[in-house]
């Protein structure tokens, strides 16, 4: 697919490095955490709840980044807060806009690491694809992120900070007194489908999503948040109970033999165990369908027999099957299935009664599509050969 218009790419000037701040960042603290921090700083316990509410609204509803603007707080108190705390989101070091409107942000976090965040505008929604880790411990063989070693988990502040920096860029902090409904927003949905395995950073992701869903702040409905997992079975029930968002699962194969190769976590928890956990999810979380993501790899997992096995396996689970044409990246060991093959596969799935949208690759010209994310600056990446030998030996 050729870009219709030139790619715009503005390199944001990186400010001179200031001495590392001693002040505690309030972004990413839960309400309880914020309360504890305020009390620690000398806020009388009796006032703490009210102060949490006020500061929370300034940060998450109005997008304010300095204490001076918090006009419903006394001047002295604002000064005290400014001395002790900061309101900081990760820095955007590069922003690229695709011909199709997709925006990709290269985001720098503490320690100089980088992750990517992608904003995808559609007619009825705007979805932000956020990262939960720098790199990934897992090594799915078709995924670019999987070639990069896990550097560290993102903190809740760095996770929710991606939502905040996207809102900054979209100019979407509501006017005072106005908090538009989810469906009217530019950023109306979140998918945890960027870099990393969200369920290996469970606490960080949970706290950040709780902030995103908080009714006095960003206030996104839990049905507008989708967490994608490669299949960390023991954390699936917790996701239902402690986050309650929609779930997507990187299924990608219909036999353990093939799934072991594509999604190596399958060797730990196989298809049967995964399906058992998924069967319980909708009831536990009181949510609708589970999305089964299925990457279409030429001659690997794309036969009619695969399609038939797939619908048989998931029978009884309220499901949507999302077919993802493989997004190529330099050195990738697979090819995208042909369109006729994808259509034939989709047809079998559809006739079995499942919605089977084929995910249109977005932002391909800026390498923003699913599974293409990887920070070019990270060192310590493994080569394909290394991964292959680890897989063989694992
Ligand atoms: N770690 C999580 C979430 C991030 S990946 C997970 O694996 O689910 C988001 C989705 O993109 C997953 O379904 C993943 O399998 C898929 N994906 C990864 N690399 C891809 C590629 N090159 N082409 C298409 N989809 C890919
Ligand atoms: Fe990690 Fe998901 Fe990529 Fe697998 S597909 S390597 S779990 S980011």
Quote the distance from N terminus to C terminus: 37 Å
Bound heterogens, unique? S-adenosyl-L-homocysteine, iron/sulfur cluster
Spell out the CATH superfamily of the largest domain: Aldolase class I
Rg over C-alpha atoms, rounded to the nearest angstrom: 22 Å
From the structure above, extract its key features.
single chain, 394 residues, alpha/beta, DNA polymerase, domain 1, TIM Barrel, 2 domains, ten-stranded mixed beta sheet, two-stranded parallel sheet, 11 helices, 17% strand, disordered N terminus, binds S-adenosyl-L-homocysteine, binds iron/sulfur cluster, tRNA processing, transferase, iron-sulfur, tRNA binding, metal-binding
List the helices and strands and how they pair.
Blueprint lengths: L7 E4 L12 E2 L5 H10 L4 H17 L13 H10 E2 L4 E7 L5 E7 L3 E9 L4 E4 L3 E2 L17 E2 L2 H15 L18 E4 L9 H12 L11 E5 L6 H7 L3 E5 L5 H7 L8 H15 L4 E7 L7 H10 L5 E7 L13 H13 L32 H10 L1
Parallel strand pairs: 2-3, 7-10, 10-11, 11-12, 12-13, 13-14
Antiparallel strand pairs: 1-4, 4-5, 5-6, 6-7, 8-9
The structure holds S-adenosyl-L-homocysteine and iron/sulfur cluster.
The site of iron/sulfur cluster (SF4) has 11 residues, from loops.
């Amino acid at each position: 697919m050729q870009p219709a218009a030139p790619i715009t790419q503005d390199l944001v000037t990186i400010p001179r490095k200031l001495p590392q701040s001693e002040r505690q960042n309030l972004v990413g603290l839960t309400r309880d955490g914020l309360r504890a921090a305020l009390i620690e700083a000398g806020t009388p316990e009796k006032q703490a709840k009210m102060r949490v509410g006020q500061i929370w609204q300034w940060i998450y509803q109005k997008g304010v980044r300095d204490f001076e603007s918090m006009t419903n707080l006394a001047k002295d108190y604002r000064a005290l807060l400014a001395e002790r705390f900061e309101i900081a989101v990760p820095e955007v070091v590069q922003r690229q806009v695709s011909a199709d409107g997709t925006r990709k942000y290269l985001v720098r976090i503490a320690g100089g690491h980088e992750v990517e965040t992608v904003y995808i505008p559609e007619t009825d929604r705007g979805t932000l694809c956020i990262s939960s880790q720098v790199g990934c411990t897992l090594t799915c063989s078709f995924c670019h992120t999987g070639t990069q070693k896990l550097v560290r988990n993102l903190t809740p502040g760095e996770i929710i900070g991606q939502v905040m920096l996207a809102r900054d860029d979209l100019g979407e902090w509501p006017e005072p007194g106005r908090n538009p409904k989810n469906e009217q927003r530019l950023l109306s949905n979140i998918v945890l489908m960027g870099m990393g395995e969200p369920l290996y950073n469970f606490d960080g992701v949970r706290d950040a999503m709780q902030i995103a869903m908080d009714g006095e702040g960003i206030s996104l409905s839990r049905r507008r948040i989708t967490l994608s997992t490669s299949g960390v079975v023991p954390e699936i029930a917790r996701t239902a109970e402690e986050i309650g968002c929609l779930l997507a699962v990187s299924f990608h194969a219909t036999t353990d033999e093939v799934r072991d190769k594509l999604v190596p976590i399958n060797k730990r928890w196989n298809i049967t165990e995964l399906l058992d956990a998924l069967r319980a999810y909708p009831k536990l979380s009181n949510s609708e369908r589970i999305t089964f993501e299925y990457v279409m790899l030429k001659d690997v997992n794309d036969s009619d027999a695969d399609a038939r096995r797939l619908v048989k396996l998931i029978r009884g689970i309220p499901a949507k099957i999302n077919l993802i044409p493989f997004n190529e990246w330099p050195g990738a060991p697979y090819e995208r299935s042909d369109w006729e093959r994808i259509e034939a596969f989709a047809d079998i799935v559809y006739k079995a009664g499942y919605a089977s949208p084929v995910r249109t690759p977005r932002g391909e010209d800026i390498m923003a599509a699913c599974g293409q994310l990887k920070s070019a600056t990270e060192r310590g990446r493994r080569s394909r050969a290394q991964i292959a030998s680890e897989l063989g030996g694992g």
